[in-house]
Structure formats: C-alpha cells, structure tokens
Specification:
The chain contains four helices and five strands. It is α+β, with helices and mostly antiparallel strands.
C-alpha cells in the first residue's frame, strides 16, 4: 500500500492492546511457540505503520506499532504483516546470504501476502 501525503492518525492504547493480542494469537496459530514476541507502542521507523526487529539466535522479536499510522490501515492488517515478517526471518536471512536484497524483499512480501490472507480468514472464523 502506498500512501502519499496522507495525514496520519494517532494510535491509541486500545489500538495497541488489540495489536498485542493479535500478535500473540497469530504467533500461536502459526506454531511460533519458540519465539518470544515483545510488542511496543511507538518508535517505529519514520513513515512506517509498524516495524519489526528480531534476533534469530535468541528467537525474539520486538514489534513496534507506530504512534500514528496511515488512514485506512487496520490494526489487524499490521499485526498479520509483522508476525509474518518474524515467521520468515530465518528464511529471509538465508536468502540474503545468496541473493540480491531487492529480489529477496519482493519475494518475501509475496509470501507475506499469502500468510496475511490466511490469517484474515482465520480471524473471520474466530469472530463467528
């Protein structure tokens, strides 16, 4: 999604609580029990809605929800995307050892889009 010159909207404590709950739920659904997920509110990269930093050896990830995000982006979407980044962390590292970064980034996001669709369907079923 590209948002040029759109005014960003503040994320609330309630948004962060939802983000945190969804990250842990999605990690459980994806069988990521070996990862420690540490959600934080704020300090995302400038211009980003959310960012993830991870340590492959210690199997932990700090996932930041930005203090403000682009309008129209849901908390659920951001949580699905960031947990997918963690899920693919080791594969991403291995691929970067052998290929150009741009190619790896593009392919990683193709897989993330598929994971997001799956998690969205599970969300819909879970809410019924």
């Amino acid at each position: 999604m590209v948002f040029l010159m759109a005014k960003r909207v503040k994320t609330s404590v309630v948004d962060f609580a939802e983000f945190k709950e969804r990250l842990h739920r999605y990690a459980e659904w994806l069988g990521m029990g070996d990862w420690k997920i540490y959600p934080e509110h704020g300090d995302a990269d400038e211009g980003s809605n959310a960012t993830t930093a991870y340590n492959l050896i210690q199997r932990n990830a700090v996932i930041h929800l930005a203090k403000d995000i682009y309008p129209g982006v849901t908390i659920a979407h951001l949580a699905r995307h960031e947990i997918s980044e963690v899920l693919l962390a080791h594969l991403d590292w291995m691929a970067r050892c052998a290929n150009a970064v741009t190619v790896v980034d593009e392919e990683r996001h193709v897989v993330i889009n598929h994971i997001e669709c799956l998690l969205e369907r599970l969300d819909e079923k879970d809410q019924r």
